[in-house]
Amino acid sequence: MAEKKKAGKTIKIRHYKSVIGYNKKQKQTVEALGFKKLGQTLEKADTPQIRGMVKKIPHLVKIIEE
After folding, report:
1. Which pLDDT score, from 0 to 100, does residue 65 have?
2. pTM, 2 dp
3. Which domains does the chain have, with CATH numbers?
């Protein structure tokens, strides 16, 4: 029996600025979000953990309008 995924709320996040010149923790946060390339857009579950990570690096990533 196939299990259906529950469709939860998601947000789209775009990595728009390079991490070069920023501290190691900020680079690790970008990597932890799952970004591999500059300009990449990801869709993530809208959880307090993801929102907190984005809030720590607003100068490197943007939330695209839901």
Report:
1. 74
2. 0.83
3. 19-64 (3.30.1390.20)
